[in-house]
Design brief:
Blueprint lengths: L10 H10 L4 H15 L5 E4 L2 H9 L15 E5 L25 H8 L3 E6 L33 H8 L5 E6 L6 H6 L2 E4 L19 E6 L2 H11 L24 E5 L8 H16 L3 E5 L2 H12 L2 H8 L11 H8 L6 H22 L4 E5 L7 H6 L1 H8 L5 H4 L2 E10 L5 E9 L3 H15 L15 H4 L9 E6 L11 H4 L4 E7 L4 E6 L5 E6 L9 E8 H10 L4 E7 L5 E7 L16 H7 L1
Parallel strand pairs: 2-3, 2-4, 7-8, 7-9, 12-18
Antiparallel strand pairs: 1-3, 4-6, 5-6, 5-10, 9-11, 10-11, 12-16, 13-16, 14-15, 17-18
Helix pairs in contact: 2-3, 7-16, 9-12
């Protein structure tokens, strides 16, 4: 990268500069626009906000700090099938454009957390494609070789992150659009569990399968965005309440790999994949070969079944060959071939495939697969636009149909200096677990962030230990208030030999109250309908004998129960007797005790 790449935009680096006063959000935004000008690829953007507007958003953060807002001053991009109030949404088709009065729910949440939107990014029209070449706004330049495709459909979002133009970006993922661009640009792409992030304000591709995805430079950054972006949304009929799932441990983690692999003649991609599996083994994972046939057959259903008709349903009142990309029109118009009988037959076929796929999950915790078998040049895709796109979906198309979550991470380099990617796949609601496993793998691989010259930050010890259960004779305890580090009762933990394992959040099923006690402390209460907030906690580990002595110190209205963490792990933690919150103000919207105290 040229001189525009003067400092890294990853969250830890940029937030540290803010905390130390080395820079300000306004200064960063001014520099971002210089970077965009010097990168000189107008095909990345369908809309770029006027710099005066972005500077105004940055200056509105003055007087606040990264400790108050989790995404403070972080510039981000929005795929142009997501609404941003007052800005046209095109979905990659100028004739379709409209200007929404309200932003998509996910955009609203990110802006409220301090992130600064810069612009709307290019995409394969109507999010139909994995190649990044099906747009009237041009083809984004792959930052490693302009002869090659950037991946789609979220091409602009992937390139913007990789090139160091934003800290993170929103994409969408129905068939793999949040993963393929990540593999082709050496970044992280998180496709969360369906319904975890609201899709209100998204132009549908396949509405029952669509997910908002996250592109970031590191797994930790993707997790930070996920924590802010995820929430139940009553305005989204496909939004879901999170479910608590048992979390596997890293040592002995059962990782499944396909018994049938296809790299479409790319020997180096295959070599990098096998090296990635060996790297997982060095982390303590147990590798198990699985029957991949039900996954491969499911993948073929997405474009070879009536889900294509759902694409037609999304734009049925608009579809017009005169104003659409011809390949996109051909695919979507093909939905007319399916009737209700064919749809129900496909549902039955999918149910059978899901049943067969579930057999594999009895023997594994995570699946590790190539993100794609290979990469193609723009010329190759133009010559065979449908067949090669289908090849790219071999390892991606089945994920949403089978209700899985997935994380694409870098896996190495080919001799032509193009990157390859590995995708980790898990059952629904294991998103945070996948991200931390990905962080461990990425840390071992090392290298630079995206197409920049900045090295991957060192993984912190708490993050490295986040995937392990308490050791034999040890018990994990989550604390939420007066026992946090630096708070008045923290000594009660350290005196029992407790050590800090990690900081994280609960599942969003709790409410937090400021109790009227002599020593200020909060009360955490789980909600009967599971409709609450994710609350910041610290997880400590202590000897079982010390845990017994610790419990003896706890007085009413506090107690110890079982808490559900954001990744589904179950740990012991503080709960509150209901009588104590009768006259206590609710402070859930602060997201944690420290933020509440800072507001006083």
């Amino acid at each position: 990268m040229p001189e525009i790449d003067s400092y890294s935009l990853d969250f830890s680096s940029l937030s540290e500069q803010y905390r130390t006063g080395a820079t300000t959000p306004a200064a960063v935004i001014a520099d971002i626009y210089d970077r965009i000008e010097q990168y000189a690829d107008p095909a990345v953007w369908i809309y770029l906000a006027p710099i005066a507007d972005s500077l105004a958003r940055a200056k509105a953060l003055e007087g606040k700090s990264p400790d108050e807002l989790p995404l403070y001053g972080l510039p981000f991009a929005i795929k142009d099938n997501l609404d941003w109030a007052g800005v046209p949404t095109t979905a990659g088709c100028p004739a379709f454009a409209y200007t929404p009065e309200r932003s998509a729910t996910v955009v609203e949440r990110l802006c409220a957390a301090g992130a600064i939107p810069i612009g709307k990014t290019n995409l394969d029209q109507f999010a139909t494609g994995l190649v990044g070449t099906r747009s009237p706004y041009g083809v984004c330049r792959n930052p490693f070789d302009p002869a090659y495709i950037p991946g789609g459909s979220s091409s602009g979002s992937g390139v913007a992150v990789s090139a160091g133009l934003v800290s993170f970006a929103l994409g969408t993922d129905t068939a793999g659009s949040g993963r393929v661009p990540a593999a082709f640009t050496n970044i992280v792409g998180l496709k969360p569990t369906k319904g975890l992030i609201s899709t209100r304000g998204l132009v549908p591709a396949v509405r029952s399968l669509d997910c908002v995805s996250i592109f970031a430079l590191t797994c930790a950054d993707a997790e930070s965005v996920l924590q802010v972006a995820s929430s139940y949304d009553a305005d989204d009929i496909f939004s879901r309440q999170p479910e608590a799932k048992p979390v596997a441990k890293l040592d002995g983690l059962r990782v499944g790999i396909p018994d049938q692999l296809e790299f479409f003649g790319n020997a180096e991609a295959e070599q990098n994949y096998r090296a990635a599996i060996a790297r997982l083994e060095t982390l303590g994972c147990q590798i198990t070969e699985i029957d991949f046939q039900p996954f491969a057959e499911t993948a073929q259903l997405l474009y070879g079944g009536p889900w294509v008709a759902e694409r037609l349903a999304a734009i049925a009142d608009f579809i017009n060959p005169a104003v659409m990309n011809p390949i996109v029109y051909q695919i979507i118009n093909g939905g007319k071939a399916y009737d209700a009988v064919a749809t129900f037959q496909a549902f039955y076929q999918l149910a059978g495939l899901r049943q067969r796929a579930d057999l594999a999950w009895q023997d594994i915790d995570v699946m590790a697969i190539p993100t794609t078998g290979t990469i193609y040049t723009i010329a190759e895709v133009e010559a065979e636009p449908i067949a090669l796109n289908s090849n790219l979906g071999r390892y991606t198309n089945f994920v949403n149909l089978l209700d899985l979550c997935a994380l694409a991470i870098p896996s190495g380099w080919q001799t032509n200096r193009l990157p390859t990617g590995l995708t980790l796949v898990a059952p629904a609601w294991q998103d945070a677990f996948l991200v931390r496993l990905g962080a461990m793998f990425h840390a071992q691989l090392g290298g630079n962030l995206g197409a920049t010259q900045h090295p991957l930050p060192v993984l912190s010890e708490p993050a490295m230990s986040a995937l392990t259960f308490a050791q034999p004779g040890q018990i994990k305890v989550a604390v939420v208030g007066a026992h946090l580090t630096g708070q008045p009762l923290n000594y009660q933990l350290t005196e029992q030999g407790a050590t800090l394992v990690r900081t994280c959040k609960t599942s969003p099923i709790y409410k937090l109250y400021a109790l009227r006690e002599k020593i200020p402390k909060p009360g955490l209460v789980r909600q009967a309908d599971n409709n609450g907030h994710a609350i910041a906690v610290e997880v400590w580990q202590m000897p079982a004998a010390g845990f017994g002595r610790f419990i003896d110190l706890i007085q009413s209205p506090m107690g110890i129960g079982t808490l559900v963490l954001e990744d589904g792990e179950l740990v012991k933690g503080f709960i509150c007797e209901p009588f104590a919150i009768a006259d206590a103000p609710e402070i859930s919207h602060f997201g944690g005790w420290r933020t509440y105290l800072a507001s006083l």
